[in-house]
């Protein structure tokens, strides 16, 4: 049994995972697409070094900011770690908000290596041409995705390049039986409460020195580096002259939109138990763990 704490940003996943993992003697596997990058600490809200010392962590700080890291690589590494831990009867907790990364581990997604160069050729395409290309490889997805939704169009194209299958075909072929049995929970905050938590977190990031962190990193890594696509860093790079307050407002809006997409994905794509309080989610996880012994 794999235990997964997923859901929205700023919902308290890290705290819940640490408490649960300590109680059952588990290892934690990162399920966030940007926490794999070294030195992206403040903006990705990584567990602190002190917190990481409490429980063994995996797939955090494994690549440099200028290095490409694909979902194919994540799936391969995560499954190797899970298989090794399970063989030793060590419980596994995956924590993160990157739903497709977590789904790639749990279900029969068959990826092949894909370089950044494959996607780079689409960066200068306008939305109309990009959507036309998607229609040529995946007509069903193109009909579902508006041509101005550039992010989703690019994601559908990326899936095709990584798997050799269209997004729609992959969804049809994908087994409904999970690769690993799992229990997943999500702390589902009221929208107003979550929005307040998101804003509070962003303000804390700036107080902790987010702008200084980025400035230091830009002395070593180009602004086009894959790691800088993370929310927060991306906005600061693209709007370097903005005041802190203006940046906080922009990052807050983008994070709230992202959190909405996260909630939709997790509820639609997983068998997930939602709780309004962290304590309830912890109790459920502990009861499930005891029941599996």
Key structural traits:
single chain, 293 residues, Rossmann fold, Histone, subunit A, 2 domains, six-stranded parallel β-sheet
Architecture overview:
The chain is α/β, with parallel strands linked by helices. It folds into two domains: 223 residues, P-loop containing nucleotide triphosphate hydrolases (Rossmann fold, 3-Layer(aba) Sandwich), CATH 3.40.50; 62 residues, Histone, subunit A (Orthogonal Bundle), CATH 1.10.20.140. Helix 2 links the parallel strand 2 and strand 3. Helix content is 55%, strand content 8%. The chain has a six-stranded parallel β-sheet with strand order 3-2-4-1-5-6, with helices on both faces.
Q: Helices and strands in order, then pairings?
A:
Blueprint: E1 2-5, H1 13-24, E2 27-30, H2 49-54, E3 57-58, H3 71-87, E4 92-95, H4 99-106, H5 116-120, H6 127-137, H7 139-144, H8 150-163, H9 167-173, E5 182-187, H10 191-208, H11 210-218, H12 233-238, H13 244-269, E6 272-275, H14 278-292
Question: What is the compact description of this entry?
Answer:
Helix content is 55%, strand content 8%.
The radius of gyration is 19 Å
Give the count of helical stretches.
Answer: 14
Superfamily (CATH H level) name of the largest domain: P-loop containing nucleotide triphosphate hydrolases
Under the CATH scheme, the architecture of the largest domain is 3-Layer(aba) Sandwich
- Cα distance spanning the termini: 10 Å
How would you sum up the major sheet? 6 strands, parallel
Low-confidence stretches: none
| Spatial order of the strands forming the largest sheet | 3-2-4-1-5-6
The secondary structure category is alpha/beta
Question: What are the secondary-structure elements, in order, as H or E?
Answer: EHEHEHEHHHHHHEHHHHEH
Helical amount: 40-55%
Query: CATH topology of the largest domain, which one?
Result: Rossmann fold
Shape verdict? globular
- The domain count comes to 2
User: How much of the residues is beta strand, in percent?
Assistant: 5-15%
How would you state the average pLDDT, rounded? 91
CATH class of the largest domain: Alpha Beta
| Strand elements, count | 6
């Amino acid at each position: 049994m794999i235990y997964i704490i997923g859901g929205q940003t700023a919902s308290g996943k890290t705290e819940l995972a640490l408490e649960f993992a300590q109680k059952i003697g588990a290892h934690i596997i990162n399920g966030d697409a940007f926490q794999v990058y070294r030195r992206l600490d403040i903006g990705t809200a990584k567990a602190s070094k002190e917190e990481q010392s409490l429980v063994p962590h995996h797939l955090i700080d494994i690549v440099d900011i200028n290095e490409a890291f694909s979902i194919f690589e994540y799936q391969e590494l995560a499954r190797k770690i899970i298989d090794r831990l399970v063989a030793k009867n060590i419980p596994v907790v995956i924590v993160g908000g990157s739903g497709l990364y977590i789904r790639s581990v749990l279900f029969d997604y068959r990826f092949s290596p894909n370089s950044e160069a494959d996607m780079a050729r689409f960066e200068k395409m306008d939305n109309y041409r990009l959507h036309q290309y998607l229609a040529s490889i995946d007509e069903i997805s193109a009909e579902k995705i508006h041509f101005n939704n550039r992010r989703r169009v690019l994601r559908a194209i990326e899936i095709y390049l990584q798997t050799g299958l269209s997004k729609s075909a992959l969804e049809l072929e994908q087994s409904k039986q999970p690769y690993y049995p799992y229990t997943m929970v999500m702390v589902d905050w009221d929208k107003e409460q979550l929005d307040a938590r998101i804003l509070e977190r962003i303000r804390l990031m700036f107080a902790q020195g987010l702008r200084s962190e980025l400035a230091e990193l830009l002395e070593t890594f180009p602004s086009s580096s894959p790691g800088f696509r993370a929310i927060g860093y991306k906005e600061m790079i693209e709007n370097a002259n903005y005041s802190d307050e203006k940046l906080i407002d922009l990052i807050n809006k983008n994070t709230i939109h992202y959190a909405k997409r996260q909630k939709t994905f997790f509820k639609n794509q997983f068998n997930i138990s939602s709780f309004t309080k962290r304590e309830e989610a912890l109790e459920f996880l502990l009861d499930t763990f005891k029941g599996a012994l």
